[in-house]
Amino acid sequence: MGANGVSIRVLAGYLVGIVLGTMSITLLFLGMRAVMDVGGACAEGGPYVSAQPCPEGVPLAMIGGMFGLFGAAGLIVLFGSQVGKGAMAIVALGWPALFLSLGLNFMDYAFHPPDTAATPVWGWLIPGVLFWLIGGAPLAIGLLAWREARAGRPGNRLTRQVATRVPAKTVIFGGATAGSWSVPRPPHATSDRAPIGGEPSGEASDLVDDLTRLAELHEAGDLTDEEFAAAKGERLAAEPPS
Amino acid sequence: MTERLNRALPLLIVGAGLLGIWLGATIFTAMS
Q1: Is the peptide bond before A120 cis (omega within 30 degrees of 0)?
Q2: Residue A192 falls within a domain, yes or no?
Q3: Mean pLDDT of chain A
Q4: Which residue, among A22, A121, A1, A126, has the nearest Cα to A65 in the 3D structure?
Q5: Is A15 on the interface with B (CB under 8 A)?
Q6: Residue A15's domain spans which residues?
Q7: Which residue would you say has higher pLDDT here, A16 or A59?
Q8: Residue in B with minimal Cα distance to A4
Q9: Do A152 and A208 form a contact (C-beta atoms < 8 A)?
Q10: Is residue A92 pLDDT above 80, yes or no?
Q11: Which residues of chain B neighbour A183 with C-beta distances below 8 Å?
C-alpha cells in the first residue's frame, strides 16, 4: 500500500472488529431466544439448585457476546480511526443493531409464543416496543442528520447537533466525498463517483458549515450577540459572489 | 491500490458482517 494508504494490518484489524461485532450480536440474539424458550429466565451456579437451569452453553454464549461487543467496538474505533472517520462511525450502528434485533426477539415471542398463550403476550410486547424505541430513535435521528448534512442543509436543531458531533457527515457508506475513508485526493482530482444526493459545491457547503457553527456557538452562549453578528458578517463578506 | 481499496471497503464490511453472523450461529449451535 502507498504512503497515504491503509496497511493490511490496520484493515485486517478493522474487519476482525466487524466480524467480532456481528458475531457477538448473533450470539446474544440466539442466546436470548434460547432463554426465552424456557420461559424468559434461568439461573445456574451458586449453592442452590435452580428450578430453571439454563440451556446448555447459553450463559457462556451470552457472556461471550457481551464482552465480544466491547472488544469489537474497541477494535473498530482503534483501527477504524486509521481507515477513516466514516469507517469508524460504523460503531454507532452497533447500538441500533443490538436493540432492534433483541427487540425483534421480544416481538416475535409476543405474537408467536412457544406455548399457546393468548396473543399478544404483553410481557414480551412491552419490552419489544421499548427496545425498538431505544434502538430506532437514535437511528432515525442519525439518518435524518446524515441526509440533511449530505444535502448541505443546516437541518433543524436536533439533527444539527447530531451532524456536528458524529462524523457521519463524511458519509458512512458513500465513499463519495474526499477523505471519507482515508485516501486524501490530490486537489485537482475529481471524484469518479458522483456524490449521492447532489452535494452542493465545496464553498457553499463550507459557508453553511461555518454559519451553522457560528449559530451554535451563539446559541450556547459562547458568542455574544455583537460578536455573532460581526463574525457572521465577516464570514458572509468573505464569500465570493456566486 | 488505495483507490481500489476505497471502493471495495463497503463490500468488505458487509462481507465481514455476514461472516460474523455465520460464525456466531455456528458457535452457538456447537455450544448448545
Answers
A1: yes
A2: no
A3: 79
A4: A22
A5: yes
A6: 8-38+54-83
A7: A16
A8: B2
A9: yes
A10: yes
A11: 2-3, 6
